[in-house]
Specification:
The complex is a heterodimer of chains A (462) and B (460). Chain A is an all-alpha fold and 462 residues long. Residues 1-8 of chain A have low confidence and may be disordered. In chain A, helix 9 runs antiparallel to helix 20 and helix 13 (267-280) packs across helix 14 (293-301). Chain A has two domains: 16-226 and 362-459, no CATH class; 237-335, no CATH class. Chain A has helices spanning 16-36, 43-54, 64-75, 80-96, 106-116, 119-122, 130-150, 158-174, 179-192, 198-223, 237-253, 260-265, 267-280, 293-301, 304-317, 319-335, 353-359, 367-377, 387-404, 407-429, 439-454. Chain B is mainly α. Chain B folds into two domains: 10-220 and 352-447, no CATH class; 229-327, no CATH class. In chain B, helix 4 runs parallel beside helix 7 (123-143), helix 9 runs antiparallel to helix 20 and helix 16 (312-327) packs across helix 20. The longest helix of chain B is centred in the middle third of the chain and has 26 residues, at 192-217. The chains are: A mainly alpha (462), B mainly alpha (460). Chains A and B meet through helix 1, helix 4, helix 8 and helix 18 of A and helix 1, helix 4 and helix 18 of B.
């Protein structure tokens, strides 16, 4: 099951098509930078950059995004270098796919050009979002695992393994549900090491998982800046928000539902929530709850303990209401039935005027940004801008690769399975349909497609 | 039980350094730095009109890239790619790559001339990149000379690049002349008629192609192009004002015969505003400016010829005064050594959707470049000296590619020398090609050092 330990990669990546593929990817990187640099920043990005610059916690979002922005911003102010490094990570990994296969097809070059021209690559790679960072790190992590798997032998290659460990540990920090990807990566390592017996396989898998978790915990500790003096940011704010949304959503889907746990702590809040939840609820995004300040007060003034008890009670005693709520939200996140409502793209620089002034970066949308937004809009009604398309692509690629199952194939299968599981996890945690949340699904699907196109499994043995 | 295997070859390291440098330049500077001249030319290129007497071809190039991605980001990317790809390809010109190549390339990439200037949208940078790339293409062509198809493809690429270079700077043809000389030397293979045919033919081809490109880039209904006459008129007036300033006894008698009143005004007021630093100071005196253009152009031209022919020492003194400012500015800060951000009049910026920019990253880049002021890194004289030494070493080894790289070095020095005749301001960018040619030569020398004590070689 493992390839020759002597020189398993000799001769790979030297065909004209492989060179063409790498040139296409290099051109794609440069085009992406020309189109986007110094990068597009939404409100969240500006907050992260402020956190990076000031060294004080500004938000409860993962600290890794500001920690990664920090060294680039310190070198040259702003996000130009960060966007360059992030995009370079993805494109260099895609280039290296040719080194994983003994041959390359010209179809992969054509598909590669097509992938570069999708808004998910051409524009998203220039957006300073942690979802993009997470996706790039994940693809990089699994591509490095594929290189490690291809060179696996009596002395497993430490450099690609270490690189993969770092990438996946950082990816797991960039998104709350990123741990799923670490687990998938550990599965790939265990599978790759199975030639040494089940004990070795188990040791490599578990060891990889523990190493990534420990590394992630250590990095997170180092990366998290202290909050501003006198302020305390809630550590479990994310969970509370999810509970609020689920409770309101459950009431909206099941109007007769009684919020008895909340009522025990605050009868007025119970009454208000039961009466008004359906009016403000939307499966599109949680933000509509903010339109009713009284409802917000009812949610946030209820003790967190009571809120947690209510949430658990709905899950356990009214599973239909909970599942309807979750299914509705997940439908919007995965299928984005009205894409325009799901923030399909963000261009230019926008955020708090005070923060932008302090950061000394140019705000607003340039003519080229407006052009990019218009370009993206041409794809809105096409399958390209649909997570479902990339889910189907991923499933198809998994099916094809399972037929061949060589070491690098298993790593790519791991990437696709990890991305599918990551996507599925939004059935539980999604609070909005923002297109970026499932960006990893699209990118993993594209990477898998390119990998298969380079050397389709049916060619084996010719 | 694990393997730590790391095999890095010098050539891979060299190319990785250059790839990283290109990405750094783009990440730190995109969408590029634009001064008034740039915005005016972008305006012309965008709206297909002609308002300035800057090169029509440069405006067309900016307009071409602006059509794909509005602004200058794509232009800067392609321009930077041309330069870095040319430098990266130097390792293909040599049979081996030394470990010196990567660190020298990194140091070169860290100079302001690369890390900042490569992202400034100036025709001087376009000229320098095209000239360097043209000569590097020529070096590749002579290396693969027996392979007809590759040779001609590379020669055509060199022709196009040098043709563009010759059109975006008035004295850019110098680079093409040295390229033609190198080609003639190599292709002649000892037969002077054959060499002359290759050299002369290629120079004519560059000139004709350049003119054709310029004609094709002039928008319809554009006013007649003044050609070199406007530039020549400015140089003539500047020289004559310098002459009456440096030698008060020198009289503008030919001009006085045509227009006594205005000439008297020039004679009296020129010494008050003239400086070898830049011609622009004359514009501060409106009456003087009016007077200089009131005098018939023919009289001014004859007066200028009189200065050169009958007062050559005074002419040389005037020219030296101008040249010393551009070649070795006594106070470099007065010669615009650094430019970052975007600034131009609103009437040009607004229609293009541009806004004034001088943000944190621009300040940092300018600050970084300022560390090198008053060091040899910011001294054209240093680069000319470097080029002369490198040209000597390359000519000592004399392999075909060496001869072309020697031509590049000599072209850089000759280009600087040409400013003795035409300089009217001390802007550091004017001699940018001189710096860049020397830096490229340095990298080429580092790839496979042409040391006198070891004659490494490939068959010519």
């Amino acid at each position: 099951m493992t390839v020759s330990p002597k020189d398993p990669v000799e001769g790979t990546g030297r065909s004209p098509a492989a060179r063409g593929f790498r040139i296409a990817m290099a051109a794609g990187l440069l085009l992406t930078l020309a189109a986007n640099a110094p990068g597009h920043l939404s409100y969240d990005s500006v907050v992260s950059l402020t956190e990076a610059r000031e060294g004080e916690r500004q938000t409860w979002a993962p600290a890794i995004s500001s920690a990664i922005l920090k060294p680039f911003d310190a070198l040259v102010g702003g996000t130009g270098l960060y966007v360059t490094a992030s995009a370079a990570l993805l494109f260099f990994c895609l280039m290296s796919l040719t080194r994983l296969r003994p041959r390359a097809s010209w179809a992969a070059v054509a598909l590669g050009v097509g992938v570069i021209l999708t808004p998910q690559v051409l524009i998203y790679q220039g957006i300073v979002w942690r979802d993009v960072l997470c996706a790039n790190l994940t693809v990089a992590g699994f591509v490095l695992l594929a290189h490690a798997a291809r060179r696996w032998g009596p002395r497993p290659p430490i450099l690609p393994l270490a690189g993969a460990l770092l990438c996946l540990a950082l990816a797991s920090l960039a998104r709350q549900n990123g741990l799923i990807l670490v687990a998938a990566g550990a599965g790939v390592v265990a599978w790759t090491a199975r030639g040494g017996g089940w004990r070795a396989s188990f040791a490599w898998g578990l060891g990889g998982l523990v190493a990534a978790v420990v590394l992630a915990a250590g990095v997170d500790r180092l990366a998290t800046p202290p909050p501003p003096e006198g302020q305390v940011l809630p550590g479990d704010a994310g969970l509370q928000i999810l509970q609020h949304y689920d409770i309101v959503g459950a009431v909206a889907h099941h109007p007769k539902l009684k919020l008895t746990e909340i009522g025990r702590a605050d009868p007025a809040a119970e009454a208000y929530l039961e009466a008004h939840a359906a009016q403000v609820y939307s499966p599109v995004r949680i933000d509509t709850l903010d339109s009713d300040p009284a409802l917000g007060r009812a949610l946030w003034r209820t003790p967190a303990k009571a809120m947690g008890a209510q949430w658990r009670a709905i899950i356990l005693r009214h599973p239909a209401a909970y599942l309807l709520q979750r299914a509705d939200v997940f439908r919007w996140t995965l299928l984005t039935p009205k894409l325009e409502l799901c923030l399909p793209v963000a261009v230019g620089v926008s955020g708090s005027p005070d923060m932008l002034k302090d950061l000394d970066i140019q705000a607003g949308a340039r003519p080229q940004d407006q052009g990019l937004a218009e370009y993206a809009s041409h794809f809105y009604r096409t399958p390209v801008y649909s997570h479902l398309t990339w889910v189907v692509v991923a499933l198809g690629m998994i099916g094809l690769l399972l037929r061949r199952r060589d070491p690098a194939d298993c790593a790519v299968i791991g990437l696709l399975v990890g991305a599918l599981a990551f996507t599925a996890s939004f059935a539980i945690i999604s609070v909005a349909c923002d297109y970026r949340y499932l960006y990893l699904m699209d990118l993993a699907g594209m990477a898998g497609l390119l990998y298969v196109a380079l050397d389709p499994p049916r060619w084996r043995g010719r | 039980m694990t393997g730590l295997r790391l095999e890095i070859k010098p050539r891979s390291a060299f190319r990785a350094v250059l790839a990283a440098s290109l990405l750094f330049v783009l990440g730190a500077n995109l969408p590029g730095h634009l001064s008034y001249d740039t915005v005016a030319q972008l305006y012309e290129g965008h709206f297909h009109i002609r308002e300035t007497w800057g090169p029509a071809l440069y405006a067309a190039i900016l307009g071409f890239f602006d059509r794909f991605i509005p602004g200058t980001a794509l232009y800067v990317t392609v321009s930077g790619l041309i330069f870095f790809a040319s430098v990266a390809s130097l390792s293909d010109l040599r049979p081996k790559t030394s470990w010196w190549a990567a660190p020298v390339a990194a140091l070169v990439a860290l100079t302001p001339q690369v890390v900042l200037y490569q992202a400034i949208v100036w025709k001087d940078v376009c000229f320098a990149n095209c000239a360097v790339a043209g000569l590097v293409c020529l070096a590749h062509a002579v290396r693969v000379w027996p392979e007809r198809r590759r040779r001609w493809l590379l020669l055509i690429a060199a022709l196009l690049l040098l043709a563009v270079a010759s059109q975006v700077r008035q004295n850019g043809i110098i680079a093409a002349a040295f390229a033609a000389a190198a080609l003639g030397w190599i292709a002649g293979a000892g037969r002077w008629r054959r060499g002359l045919a290759w050299g002369g033919g290629s120079l004519i081809a560059v000139a004709v192609t350049g003119q054709a490109l310029t004609l094709a880039s002039i928008p319809p209904h554009a006013p007649p192009d003044p050609g070199v006459s406007t530039g020549l008129g400015i140089v003539q007036n500047y020289d004559l004002m310098g002459a009456v300033t440096l030698d008060r006894s020198y009289k503008l008698s030919i001009m006085a015969a045509a227009d006594p009143a205005d000439t008297a005004l020039i004679q009296a007021r020129a010494p008050l505003v003239y400086s070898g630093r830049r011609v622009d100071f004359i514009d501060r005196d409106k009456a003087l400016t009016d007077a200089e253009w009131n005098v018939p152009a023919d009289a001014t031209s004859r007066q200028w010829v009189d200065l050169i022919v009958h007062h050559p020492l005074l002419y040389l003194r005037v020219r030296w005064e101008d040249f010393r400012w551009v070649f070795a500015p006594p106070v470099i800060d007065w010669c615009l050594p650094i430019y970052a951000g975007v600034e131009a009049p609103a009437d040009k910026m607004v229609p293009l959707g541009l806004t004034y920019r001088y943000v944190g990253s621009d300040i940092e880049m300018a600050n970084y470049a300022s560390w090198f002021l008053d060091t040899p890194v910011y001294a054209h004289g240093f680069y000319v000296a470097l080029s002369v030494v490198l040209a000597g070493l390359f000519l000592w080894r004399r392999e075909p590619a060496d001869r072309v790289l020697a031509a590049l070095q000599l072209a850089g020095a000759a280009f600087a020398a040409s400013f003795f005749v035409i300089s009217i301001a001390c802007d550091y960018r004017y001699l940018y090609f001189t710096d860049l040619a020397a830096l490229v030569g340095l990298v080429y020398a580092a790839v496979d050092p042409p040391m006198p004590w070891r004659r490494a070689g490939t068959p010519p």
